[in-house]
Design goal:
Helix content: 40-55%
CATH class of the largest domain: Alpha Beta
Strand order of the largest sheet: 4-3-5-6-7-13
Keywords: DNA-binding, Transcription, Transcription regulation
Protein name: LacI family transcriptional regulator
Pfam families: LacI, Peripla_BP_3
Number of helices: 12
Organism: Arthrobacter alpinus
Number of strands: 14
InterPro entries: HTH_LacI (IPR000843), LacI/GalR-like_sensor (IPR046335), Lambda_DNA-bd_dom_sf (IPR010982), Peripla_BP_I (IPR028082)
Structural class: alpha/beta
Length: about 325
């Protein structure tokens, strides 16, 4: 039998479990938690993994040798303040559990993310993927090979923590409609971002509920530097208000409007998303949809640690955390035209 292949397909945890005569969860625990399963069962699993050429057997040997007790956090842009609270929340929890955090910037690239994950297979016990850019199939393959939890992904069969934009976006529409806005734009994020797709769907639903016109602009990179193009597009669209994919885009738009002499909120209203550090320091302070970022990181870390603990009874596959609107000074009544 070829290493890493069963009937021409890549070997998975299920293949190892079938050969060893145990549950898939038992295989995962043996490969990620040396010494926590009975010697007889562990040996059966490890023999099956070796015979099948499953590469987590090599990972287990590395971890058993004490060369690593780490968990990897993969983020698409380490410079984005959104990830600061994720890094902090995860690191504190891992430290308390006796793990170290390995932080990797995947540069908004699915290819970099996939190659990084491949290298993590032999050096880390688990992975948390924040705003993953992987395809569904690539995420599924990774979840079969190493314990992982995804932040803001609910596909590929991986355990997930989702920041649910629905409530926050509906509150944002209630706020804007009360200020007499009737043509509202969504400044969309990266084309392959599931978060951007979900937020647009919630946007459309809220617009329909309130009887206002919804416009989609973009996609834009989730950076301040993309805000100028987004601001110009919004003025062309004649929307009087917008909800941006994230605060960085919104802050970039504020700067562009100031350069062009467009008054916020007298001429246009802007709402960001995430409530990152510094959103309230803008001129004007940014109205935004607040996301429970650090809480999401802590929940994701708990879910991963529970997967790494064979004695845990926590089998949560998905947790949704709500958002809410924080009103500041970047939204106001529609100017008379």
């Amino acid at each position: 039998m070829d290493a890493q292949r069963v009937n021409g397909e890549r070997v998975t945890l299920r293949d190892v479990a079938k050969v060893a005569g145990v549950a898939t969860s038992t295989v995962s625990r043996v490969l990620s938690n040396p010494g926590r399963i009975s010697p007889r069962t562990s040996e059966a699993v490890l023999k099956a993994a070796r015979d099948l050429g499953y590469d987590s057997a090599r990972r287990r040997e590395v971890l058993t040798a004490g060369q690593s007790r780490s968990v990897a956090l993969l983020v698409p842009d380490i410079g984005n303040p959104f990830y600061f609270d994720i890094i902090h929340g995860m690191q504190e929890q891992l430290k308390a559990a006796g793990y170290i955090q390995v932080l990797v910037d995947t540069e908004e690239s699915a290819e970099v993310e996939e190659s990084t994950l491949e290298s993590m297979m032999s050096t880390s016990q688990g992975v948390i993927l924040a705003a993953s850019r992987l395809s569904t199939n690539a995420l599924k393959r990774a979840a079969e090979r190493i314990p992982l939890v995804a932040l803001n992904r609910n596909d590929g069969g991986a355990p997930a923590v989702l920041i649910d934009a629905t409530i926050g976006i509906h509150q944002a529409f209630q706020h804007l409609v009360s200020l007499d806005h009737r043509r509202i734009a969504f400044i969309s994020g990266p084309e392959k971002s599931l978060s951007s797709q979900w937020r647009w769907q919630a946007f459309v639903d809220a617009a329909r509920e309130h009887g206002v016109e919804a416009i989609r602009l973009g996609p834009y990179a989730p950076k301040q530097t993309s805000g100028a193009a987004a601001a110009d597009a919004m003025l062309t669209s004649r929307a009087t208000a917008c909800i941006a994919f994230n605060d960085l885009l919104a802050i970039g738009m504020l700067r562009r409007f100031r350069v062009r002499g467009v008054r916020v909120p007298a001429d246009v209203s802007i709402i960001g998303f995430d409530d990152i550090f510094g959103a309230d320091f803008c001129q004007p302070p940014l109205t935004t949809i607040t996301a429970p970022i650090e809480r999401a990181a802590r929940v994701a870390t708990s879910m991963l640690l529970n997967r790494l603990d064979p004695g845990s009874s926590d089998a949560r596959k998905m947790v949704r955390l709500p958002t809410y609107l924080t009103v500041r000074e970047s939204t106001g009544m529609v100017a008379a035209r």
